[in-house]
Amino acid sequence: MIRKYVVKVGKESFEVEVQEMQTQSAGPNFQPNIIMPPPVMTAPLPTPKPKMPMSVPRQKSPSGGKTINAMMSGSIIAVLVKEGDEVKENDAVIKLEAMKMETVVNSPFAGKVKEILVAERQAVTAGDMLIVIE
Questions:
Q1: Considering the domain boundaries, does residue 125 fall inside one?
Q2: Which DSSP symbol is given to 39?
Q3: pLDDT, tens digit, for every residue of 59-115?
């Protein structure tokens, strides 16, 4: 016996003829009117990495005043100011080399350079005090 079915895939319809066969084995109970969708395989989403803080905790100077700290480990290429200089906010005060790249350290505030705590070619780590501003 031949049966005709209309199968929809997406927005398209297909007419299908199915011939039933007589078998003697007791196979699974087949229901021709039920169309099972294929199983959907999903992978777990990657867990987001926690954001790293963009600033290093500021240390307090033993002599008082505000400190400018290294934001990363590296070595001092140049000290661009000297004690007694007046600096404005965002003025360049130190050139730092880290991983073959030069980074300029800017003053986060205005004031007078009270103390320079590093020298050229000195190695520093993230958070080390570089300059004290009063």
A1: yes
A2: P
A3: 666 667 888 998 889 999 999 999 999 999 999 999 999 888 999 999 998 999 999
Tokens matching residue 15: 């007419």
Number of domains in the chain: 1
* 95, part of any domain: yes
Range of the domain at 95: 66-133
- Is the overall model pTM greater than 0.85, yes or no? no
- Alpha-carbon distances, residue 22 vs 1, 26, 27, 78, 100 (angstroms): 10, 11, 11, 91, 78
CA angle 82, 87, 90 (to 5 degrees): 120
Distance between CA atoms of 111 and 85, rounded to whole angstroms?
9
Report the alpha-carbon distance of residue 122 to residue 32 in Å, rounded: 80
Residues contacting residue 96 through CB under 8 Å, at least 6 positions apart: 70, 72, 74, 75, 76, 77, 102, 103, 104, 105, 124
Residue type, 78: A
